[in-house]
Amino acid sequence: MRHHHYALDAALLVTLALPWTLAAAADLNAPVDMQAVQLQPQEQNGIRYLEGGIGQDEANALRKTPGYDLHVELSTGPDGKFQSGASVDIQNAQGNSLLSVQDAGPLLYVQLPPGQYRVIGQADGTTVQQHVTVNGKAPATVNLNWR
Asked: 103 lies in a domain?
């Protein structure tokens, strides 16, 4: 019994000591518990996307999913803690909204044709945005960070 108590205390301490950051969740070699994964491909205006990443298993499963040209990572603070619950709007070069996702994050993967895009995120009354080029060869990554 006593060892179990110490093991529980140690596990709790490790959990509290490790900040849940984008970097911490990026261990792609870690095994994934697929029962903890809730990813469902979705489509809006003919654009397919996946969003989620709550928990390390889901974040790792999403990061291992091929076929998405734009990877949007939502974070907050200087240490890059995951931000979920944001709204994300992706616009083409002409400023037309192509995809608008409410309560997104912390990861959003989108299938887009090559081109120039603006990714706009809103959370806690603050808007952040970034321009990105999707080249169709390698996924482009946008990190929207609310500091």
From this structure: yes
- The pLDDT, as a whole number, for residue 31 is 53
Number of domains making up the chain: 1
Domain CATH code at residue 91:
2.60.40.10
- With CA atoms as reference, report the closest residue to 51 among 102, 124, 119: 102
Give me the phi and psi of 85, to 5 degrees please: 85, 10
* Domain region containing 56: 20-146
Distance CA 29, CA 10 (A): 24
Whether the Cβ atoms of residue 87 and residue 104 lie closer than 8 Å to each other:
yes
Q: Which residues of the chain have pLDDT under 70?
A: 1-38
The answer to whether residues 85 and 113 touch, using CB atoms and an 8 Å cutoff, is: no
Which residue type occupies 12?
Answer: L
